[in-house]
Amino acid sequence: MDFFWSSFVPLEKTFCKVMAPQMQSTDLTSTAGYDSIIQHLNDGRKNCKEYEDFLKERAIIEEKYGKELINLSRKKPCGQTELNTLKKALEVFKQRIDSVGQSHIQLAQSFREEARKMEDFREKQKLHRKKIELIMEAIHKNRNLQYKKTVESKRLYEQRCRDKDEAEQAVHRSANLVTQKQQEKLFMKLAQTKSTLEDSDRAYQQNVNMLEKIREEWKNEHIKACEFFETQECERISYFRNALWVHVNQLSQECVQSDEKYEEIRRSLEMCNIDKDIEFFVNYRKMGNMPPAPVVYENYYNTSRNATPVRNQAPPPGIGRRGPLPIPTSGPSDPDYATVDGYSLVHH
């Protein structure tokens, strides 16, 4: 039975701790913490892809092994001349080896299915994460632009402050040294610098307030993103672990099924009876019940004395090479004297 580890409890705002040094940094535009999280998520996605490729390669190996087993059991002779009970056991042996090959091919299909599920899960997470990344990219861009505007407005404000201070110092230095008209110009310049300072101060404050608003928005969105990424990472680890668990269970199940087939082979071997196989062979191939007669010693001289020559023995009646001579039916003076069975030996 597959064990699905689907329950998980993410630590509260754990990923936000990665962001904490970034939030405490004086560089508001730093994305070191965020980049670290994204890199970790990318590494996790890469790990899932590597496992997916591993399953595909394992499926190729299992399928090849299964086909080789099937070809071996079907095409390679294995005890084909055995008889009786051992022959039956060998038939079971080859059939079960064929079944083991088929089960390995089925296991390869299961591995491919698991690889497809991992790919779907990986792509689904990528799609959901992309939405958050786009939001964060837009916020980072807006924050950086506002930060640059604020820095520039601060630079102008500080410059206007220096201009105003210089104008005031010029008025004080020339209080008794310049004409009335020059004094008026100095006061006019001082008033102008004060007005410009007020405008730059107001713009600087507005930019600071806007930047703080954007910073708060960025911080809130960043926390939400970290919580989302943390939940997604918990899901990924859970799914990855469960996929490994399922894979090992499939391997165990294949071993159990193969052992069941091997047990059937063992039971068929237990049914083998050596005495019956020997008896079957004897009955199947026997040539008779009596052995050949022994070859006895025969003394040549004793045998030649006692034996009657074959050439002196008269052949039994009717089995000679030639039949008995015919009895003439006429005398020497008879014209038919030379005729035997109607055939004349004398030509007239």
TrEMBL record:
Pfam families attached to this UniProt entry: FCH
Region (Disordered) location: 307-338
A Gene Ontology biological process term: actin filament polymerization
UniProt membrane topology term: Peripheral membrane protein
Keyword Oxidoreductase: no
Gene3D superfamilies to which the protein is assigned, alphabetical: Arfaptin homology (AH) domain/BAR domain
Function text: Binds to F-actin. May be involved in regulation of the actin cytoskeleton.
Identification of the protein by name: Proline-serine-threonine phosphatase-interacting protein 2
Organism field: Alligator sinensis
Record lineage: Eukaryota, Metazoa, Chordata, Craniata, Vertebrata
